[in-house]
Amino acid sequence: MKNGVQIDKVESGIAFREKGQGFMFCKVYSALCLGIEGCIVRVEADMSNGLPAFQIVGELSSEVRESGARICTAMRNSGFSLPPKRYLINLAPADFRKSGTGFDLPVAVALLCCIEHVSPEFLENSIFIGELGLNGTLVPVKGILSMVSQAVKEGFSNCFVSVENAEEAAIVSEMRVFGARTFSEVIDHLQGKRKLSQILVPTSEKNEKERKYPMDFGDIRGQETAKRCMQICVAGHHHLLVIGPPGSGKTMMAERLPYILPEMAFEEQMMVTKIHSAAGQLKPGSGLMTCRPFRRPHHSLSDKALVGGGATPTPGEISLAHGGILFLDEFAEFSRSAVESLRQPLESGEVFVHRVRGDFCFPAKPLVVAAMNPCPCGYYPDRKRCRCTSSQIQKYMAKISGPVLERLDLCVYIRRVDYRHMTDEGSGMDSRQMQVKIERAGQIQKERFSGENIRYNSEMEGQMLEKYCGLDKETQRFLEKAYEKFHLSARTYQKILKVARTISDMEGSPKIQMEHVAEAVGYRLPDETYGGGLWG
Amino acid sequence: MGLTERECWFWMCSRPWLGVRSIDKLLGYFKTAKNIYYGRNSQYTEVKGLSENIRKRLEQCVEKDETLLRRDMSRLEKSGGHFVCRIDREYPEKLRHIYDAPAGLFYYGHLPEKKRPMIAVVGAREASGYGLASARYFAGALAEMGIDVISGLARGVDGEAHRGVLENSRSLPENVFEAGQTWGILGCGLNICYPRENYSLFEQMKVRGGILSEYGLDVKPEPWRFPMRNRIISGLADGIFVIEARERSGALITAEAGLEQGKNIYALPGRFNDALSQGCHQLIQSGAKLVFKPEDIAEDYDISSNGLKSWHGKTKLALDNSEQLVYASLSLSPKDVDAISAECGLTLSETWKTLLNLELEGWIRPMGKNLYIRSI
């Protein structure tokens, strides 16, 4: 407040007016995305006399710091010129780093408010998020959904975003979303010249329609064991290792998995969309993600890219696959450190990224499907084609040993498809048939774990195993025999029990039968103690 | 003072650069090993056909370090190894007659006895499940009938053959454990276990038979040394049984050497289009004996096969319906669970149950994940 100048207070602190000078101070709200959480930011603009200057303060990252020139040019090109004065922009609270490009629009609006082009009363209850192009167009930004949902929680009711972001923002139904193509459209709306229409997303009336399978397991001929294994993997949320020669259909099958997973609840859809939005993986103009994600990272990716991180932490592949499938093709080719980094997230279901500026937490509960060849050339045990030595094969297999195998519950071998099967019409299960058993198992698990803090059989631990995986005498003897004969480890034993539980749930059997255990033993992962490698 | 004749033989045999042919040339000139050791430089130049490199080495005194030599000898002794050379009475009689007979042998365990027939079971290193299973079965059956088995301690067929013998002798009472003896010939120094994965086999064979090598301690396994040791395998054997061999396989070198040495050649047939059986088929075509049961070999040595358990002979009474069905659908080439369940008309759960029961009872064996073969 300037010396000796009388100041009127207008509108509950949104702006201050100096006599005959326009507003000296003005406040607009915006938001940014930290990790996957939205955070409201106050954009304060102050205009004062003195040598013309333009400064933005408030712990800025470089992309925000350089926005000043962009904003001024965009404003001029939209037909607004700023009088030569001193302008100070403050992004508050000033104690955390402001990153992202969404502050261009609020800063520009705040400036126009200072020179009385926009009336401050319109600015209350509104948040502005958007980047400006030099020609005044409004550019979409990442993480809109997180920001808008946070804004609703803090009581905002209007939001101005780029038209490409509008659909995503409108997922939050409590918010009145206005999508604009250019900066001047926003100003026209605020000045009341030409109103923008509110973007409405047709409220997702419960789609009771038949589920669609854009990719169907019915396309895959033969391979019943593998399909069965996929079914178990989905039903009990067991991570799966698929081994097979090149071209046997490992990828093809994994791609079909998201469609037989149970449909996502709204909260889950919100979470998945938020993660993708924060990572900038959402296509412009797309709304809520209703389809479960399928991520297929290349094996050359770094551990940061896999679990998330970076200077401004962004979700990694494992978080992007949250609620869906994380397909790790050529598993043996992944770097050791990348694979090791999977361990903790898969255990806790979350990724923590620790930074000086704070800790970020990304949800990470994907269903992991790893695929690999049985040997370096890929054709073992077909000795007509494979001429790898047994030590080569063992070395290849040893790449995935240890801590990684700990996290995987199931293992299946896929063979090359016979011609006979390829020409077979309509043989085998299709996705719809597969889903019947998955849903049944899901229902049983839901009832079983209603008192517990878990959802799937694979998450059972300690006491729960005893409680829910009781075996009768005969089955117990059978498992004991197998345990001795195959030199199973305690860990493998537990996994077998969990998988057997899922199989019996799929079959609707309240008790675990012997054949369920036998099948689970058949799908067990190679044990480290077992002959030093997968092939014994 | 000075070295004994036998120590000079040890010295001569443990030079990695001195092959058996050069040794013979030197012996032709010097008559005794001692003379070679203490030979004068001028004498070395007079030996006909000796390569320049060997002559130079012989002249170097580094190669004639007595303390090093004594250390090597005690090293061999401490590890439980022995040395035998042509001048010894224990030197295997069978080897004396072969071309390029090794000058000396380093060995663990004991040397093969004359009185019992010995069959070399050899084959591909990258053998199929069929090859591995049959190597194991035939070697075991031969051992049971009192025939010793010799092989190359390599991966694949060789190792399986040794294993078959050891496995089979395990069930015999201690006093007749002679029944299961097996010898392995190495292509490297005796103290080097190559390939590594046969380490436990290596240790067991020191007790149940022996491990032989014509190379001194610390000699690295080099590709060209392996065909060389094949002549010892065939030399020590009375017959050579080729299990699985590609068209140009090391096992055929053994068979060829055996043929030159006048041994019986046996071959296991495979399927006509199996690349891994091409070598065997060629052998059969050119006169090798086709073997499809262990007795085929035994009869040549007047050994009766009474009480030998045949692989067909396992009583199937113990199996229930679905087990018989599943067992019948399996063969010696791997079949996966999918195909088994489709063929037997069982659900996957039932198939798994049956397979695991069969596996637990030892009727079948897994070959990798989800693939099964009959065990014989």
Percent helix range of chain B: 40-55%
Strand order of the largest sheet of chain A: 1-2-3-4-6-5
**H/E series of chain B:** HHHHHHEHEEHEHEHEHEHEHEHHEHHEE
Indicate the overall shape of chain A: elongated
Helix percent of chain A reads 25-40%
Classified by CATH, the class of the domain at 7-199 in chain A is Alpha Beta
Strand tally of chain B: 12
User: What's the count of strands of chain A?
Assistant: 21
> What's the total helix number of chain B?
17
**Uncertain residue ranges of chain B:** 170-177
- Terminal Cα span of chain B: 60 Å
Structure, described:
By secondary structure, chain A is α/β, with parallel strands linked by helices. Among the domains of chain A are: 7-199, Ribosomal Protein S5, domain 2 (2-Layer Sandwich), CATH 3.30.230.10; 239-408, 3-Layer(aba) Sandwich (Rossmann fold), CATH 3.40.50. Chain A is 36% helix and 19% strand. Chain B has 376 residues and is an alpha/beta fold. Chain B folds into three domains: 1-78; 118-301, Rossmann fold, CATH 3.40.50; 316-374, Winged helix-like DNA-binding domain superfamily/Winged helix DNA-binding domain (Arc Repressor Mutant, subunit A, Orthogonal Bundle), CATH 1.10.10.10. Helix content of chain B is 43%, strand content 12%. Chain B is built from 17 helices and twelve strands. In chain B, the strands form two sheets. A nine-stranded mixed β-sheet of chain B has the order 1-2-6-5-4-3-7-8-9, with helices on both faces. A three-stranded antiparallel β-sheet of chain B has the order 10-12-11. In chain B, strand 4, helix 9 (157-170) and strand 5 form a beta-alpha-beta unit. Chain A binds chain B through residues 222-226, 228, 243, 374, 380-381, 383-384, 386-391, 394, 411-413, 415, 478, 481-482, 485, 503, 507, 514-516, 518-519, 521-522, 526, 532, 534-536, and chain B through 125-129, 155-156, 195-197, 274-276, 334, 336-338, 341-342, 348-350, 352-353, 355-357, 359-360, 366-371.
